[in-house]
Structures are given as C-alpha cells and as structure tokens.
Amino acid sequence: MNSLEAVFEIIDNNKCPFYKHGDVFCLSGKALLLDQKKAKTFISTTIIKFPYEKSSCRILIEDLSEILIKYKSVDRIPELKLYCSGCSGLVRLEYKGRQPNSPGIEDKYDIEVIESLLSNFSFFKVLDENDIRKLVPFLKMKKYNKGENIIKKETPAGIYISLFQEQLRF
C-alpha cells in the first residue's frame, strides 16, 4: 500500500519570515472518524515535509493540517490555492499534485503482527480489532538491527525516558 503525498509550492510571498517563492511542502497522512458504540473517536496523522534547514511555521502547519482534515485523505484534495493564515508575513501556496510517498507497511505478516502488538497496549484496548486494523495504515515500519540505538538521550523521547527513570528512583 503505497501512500501519496500532496505537493504544495509557494507562488507568492509577502514578507514571510521563514519561506521564499518556490519553496515546496509535501503533505501526507489521513483523517479518520471511528464510530464506536459509546463514543466517536477522531484520529488524524499529518506529516508535513518542509524545505530542509528552514524553520517550521506553526501557522502554516495548522493551515496544511486543516486541508487534510477537510478532505480526509491526500487522494481527495482537489486543485486549490491557499493563503497561510499569516503572522508578520503572508504566503500563497498552490497545490501541484500528488507524488508517491515513502512506502508504508506492505507485508501482510507485518500488518498482522502490528495489529496483535497494538491490541496489548492499554491505550488501544478501547478499540476493537477492526478499528485497530484501520489504524495500521497510519504507521510506518522501521526495522532496527540488534544492538542499534533507537532513542538518543538528547531527543525528546530520550529526555522523557531519563525523567521517568529519575522518578522511579525516588
């Protein structure tokens, strides 16, 4: 199951402090509403690729995320132009089409294993097997070699784990 990403390019720039004309942003992910017996649950994954070595503008992140939420999936986004909500500057973006994204979880065995693993976490116990199956396409599989570091101390996850370990010592 290869996913797609929507490509947006800045076509007008009016004093934007972060980006310039021609900068490209790639949007991927999904927005899913799960209708459960007791409540409805909305799940959204939004992945936005920014020009390398440029700041991330939270206003533009929100604007692009709203597009994904509105259309539910990248393959439903129509041709459009949009203005960012603005701060001290303003940019206008144009939808340039779709392109293949990095591959997601493709192996049927991996999907079954992930479904089984997720159902063991308390966070996912409120979901039935069918809902968990719907979540799997949101995930990206990355395999690590034995002994390979997967979390570094200086990353947010590493800092969180260090703080958690300190709390356990008391």
Automatic annotation (TrEMBL):
SUPFAM superfamilies noted in UniProt: cAMP-binding domain-like
Superkingdom of origin: Bacteria
PROSITE patterns: CNMP_BINDING_3
Domain Cyclic nucleotide-binding: 123-170
Protein name: Cyclic nucleotide-binding domain-containing protein
Species whose genome carries this gene: Desulfonema limicola
